[in-house]
Amino acid sequence: MIDKAKFFADCRLRVDAELDRLIPAGSVEPHRLHEAIRWSVFAGGKRFRPVLMMAVARTFGADLELTDRTAAAVEMIHTFSLIHDDLPAMDNDDLRRGRETCHKKFGDAVAILAGDVLQTLAFKALAEDDRLPVDVRLKMVSLFADASGTPHGMVAGQQLDLEAEGRDVGIRAIEEIHERKTGALISASAIAGAVIAGANDSEIDSIERYATRLGLLFQITDDLLDVTQSSETIGKTAGKDVHARKATYPGHMGIDATRVLAREVCKDANDALTAIDHDTDLLSYISENILNRET
Predict the structure, then answer these.
(1) Which of 166, 182, 186, 245 could make an S-S bridge to 219, C-beta 3.0–4.6 Å?
(2) 8 Å CB contact between 276 and 59
(3) Where are the domains of the chain?
(4) What pLDDT score was predicted for residue 240?
(5) At residue 180, does pLDDT exceed 60?
(6) Beta bridge partner(s), residue 99
(7) Are 104 and 237 in contact (CB under 8 A)?
């Protein structure tokens, strides 16, 4: 029986070590840009997306060494999105991962460039990962480009989120926003782990169904944390979604109904795993932890 807590802790260490190798040191010119990138990347994030990718790969029997570079690329893409989302022209937040956001510490211009560089470094890492066959590398580039951009990815989701501010939108519109803004990269991460491990088409389909519900669950619980926890607990400004009149599940359904929905979506995610003829305990453990998370 695998020690799940140790597995996930080891995965985070692997991701951080690979990030440290890939991202220029603060002593390298231009110093301020590299310092800003490292400030944001090494701010103590949960590394949820790369760890999910590694857990899926392990579920299908892959050596984690095959996943290191892709996992780091996933975290760079995620951090680029956070840096840009926090900007005054976007979500305008001063706190991220328990400390000043990139633009608050280094200025808007440097933050924009830091996000730009993280995205380019991520795709460079994917393209140059000689631990993977060329066809798999090409699949990774395509998969994460789609999940990052438009019309199905994070950038599209951010645009829809901005357009929904202050409007009374329905539950389906909220889902469409978060399927892109949050869910797309989560789903791509899980699929990447399956592809790297050589899973068959049926198994990849099951992982995609699992990860789609997992992404929705992550956003639902994120919305709940915004209205039920303090800024100190969640590491970002609590209550900000309400103040900005964001399209959220609690705002539309109320807290109690949102909690019921979270449990239903968690069950859907775990049910998708039943079609996989491998030990999926790591993956059901992830969904249960998201359901019950407090940060």
Answers:
(1) 182
(2) yes
(3) 4-291
(4) 62
(5) yes
(6) 96
(7) no
